Amino acid sequence: MLEEFDDDTTDESTRRRSRRRMGWGRRLTVSVLAFLLLVVIGIGGYAWFLSSKVDRNLARENLLGDARSQTETTTGKKLVDDAGTNYLLIGSDARPGETASRADVIQLVHVDADHDNVWIIHFPRDLYVPVPGHGEDKINAAYAYGQSPLLVQTIQDLVGVKINHVAKTDFEGFKQLTDSLGGVRVNNAQASPKYAEGPLDLDGDQALEYVRERKTLAEGDISRGQRQQAWLKGIMSETLTPGVLLNPSKLGGVIDAGTQHTIVDEDLTTGTIRSEAIKLRGVRGSDIHFVTAPFSGYGTAPNGGSIDILDEAGMADLSDALRTDHMESYQE
Fold first, then answer.
1. pLDDT in tens, 79-117
2. Angstrom distance (rounded) from CA 255 to CA 246
3. Is residue 243 situated within a structural domain?
4. Range of the domain at 276
5. Domain containing residue 41: CATH number
6. What total number of domains does the chain contain?
7. Dist. CA 299–CA 4, nearest whole Å
8. Burial of 89 from C-beta contacts in 10 A (0-12 / 13-18 / 19+)
9. What is the pTM of this model?
10. Where is the chain membrane-spanning (predicted)?
């Protein structure tokens, strides 16, 4: 059983060191690419063609639900809706043919008002938080209880900003995206029975196995998150090369693979995507920053499940940074 930590024993300096140490770790999946590919469209010279392809591939559902009309949190605090743009990205564990699924990956992407920087905030799926109407539970339980709309409401309550759009994808999209690039090279920080430490070249099936592994790794989900981060870095590095961006066929294949298994909210129209992509055309890899939502340690829920304990002071800092559109201050 995991040792339980006392939230009160974590001082501010420890929290800041912890944020810097864990900022590049944790879990990321192809759902992030559904957003990053919008950046690619803005960078490349084929915006009309690619946006048409995106429109044909993307499915649209009511992923915002009642959260779309919310103006304040469930505790009565005003939701800020004019400090940048916020996208909730959900990675589903559904496989082809399955209808039921869990939110295995939860990312909040914040684009600052100037469209100069993108912040990707990972919410660990075991983060123990208030879920509207259901008391405290793991954050991914919000998705199980009420799918995307309740997860949106839960995160809006935590950070105090409006979520403008939602996108979700699945494992098949992950594999196809990797293969569309001819595979991906990752820097593996921790060896396992199948994968040696150091640079690895992985195809889609191998990459999926690589990022889902946790039982043979020293820190379980922590180590798995680091692997998924390594995959994302590899995908980003390859996608943003001239060999992809300046090759219509290659770029079209990447866009195709990244959107075929992606569902977005009904308000995220092709026109909106195109407009946002053009505004983001100057963004490069160094302008995309990774953060983990703050937690103070590990514990056990009343039902016996392992949880990540919410760092309430750290979450208040994150909320302030988002509400004022000054995310750079959060990592100082």
1. 999 899 999 988 766 554 454 456 777 889 899 999 888
2. 13
3. no
4. 7-175+265-331
5. 3.30.420.590
6. 1
7. 4
8. buried
9. 0.76
10. 28-49
